[in-house]
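Entry 0007
Protein: Integral membrane protein
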Amino acid sequence: MLALRLVRTFRPTALARRAVVAGMAGAVGFLLLSALGYAVAHPERPDVALSRLLWCTVPLAACVQFAAAAARTDPCVRPREGLDAVGVGPARLPLLAAFSTALSCAVGCALALPAFVHLRVGLGDAPLAGAAAELLGAGRELPWAAVVTLLAVPPSAAAGASAVATRLRALPPAGPVAQPRTPPPVPAGLPWGVAVTAVGLAVEAFAADRAVSSPGPEVPMPGSLDGLGPGVVGGWLLIALGLGLAGPGLVHLCGLLLAMGRPGALRLLSGRALREEAPRVGHSLGMLCAVVAGALATARLYGSAGGPPAGPLTLLGAAVVVVCAVAGALSAAAEFRAARASATAGLRRLGVPRGTLRAAAALRVAALAAVLVPSAWLIAELAALPLAR
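Output (structure tokens):
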């Protein structure tokens, strides 16, 4: 009840983020139900059903990451005197954020169920009735225990990720932050992110090599979800996880590059801001880099292979990933702006012109693009190489 009352106090931007979280969770729930429908309608093809279910983990991971990023920017996770009065202090704010996120995702999944049932049995003689029936496995009764279990996955995963993200935000930063001359610490996730990305590339290359060299149909990449096995899906998930872990380190590297040599006031201000806020916005930018790399790899594979057009479920999953990545980056930008509000106000009181602050923001964006875009292009080339043979 407290979470519902707090939702009423949200600003339109916070409500819009919650609406996007609900919509993305509903789309993920629809994809999970479609995988279940295919498995029930085609019991003789368990490998394809497993591959379709594993492909749902890609939009699920994107939705969970965006839900955690949105939870960090919610007004309900900020300490308030009124919340302390009712016993909701900083230690219980993660539980409040988890419940609020689970509620939004549950609403989206609850709306996905009647939409799935209607498209599965209620199209009649519509032009797309046959295709929808084949994709969603019409004609077989769904096990409702499995339906409830699958629809509970997005709210549960998003709630757990939101609680962890909110708790990490509430923890005091390590090191003597109170000394203004101490440089921001280097994020420790860059080596781990590089290692996980390398493992993901190796797993994808090994799985693609086995799929191509083994007897049977070739790996239809691009194509339907039936062609790529669990190894390729797992490799792509590891690549995205690695880039997400390496994101804060890459943002910190952008700040170091801006401050190299003998920087002026503009470069020094921009580099310092990037280094200070790298742990806050790096993960979302790393996931956006992973999505850009996946889009570049898919575009190259479509251009080289000339495969069939993607199906509606593939397009829905891709739309979920893209929307979650872009919305997560926008949420990170809003969090960055809120975190720098006091510093910006102090600079304004010192007489710094607004044009200088805008130039510093543009310089930060240019530095991020100069580092993240080549990184995404390199990962895309490496990821597409095993599948383009």
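Curator remark: Residues 171-178, 215-226 have pLDDT under 50 and may be disordered. The chain has two domains: 1-169, 185-389.
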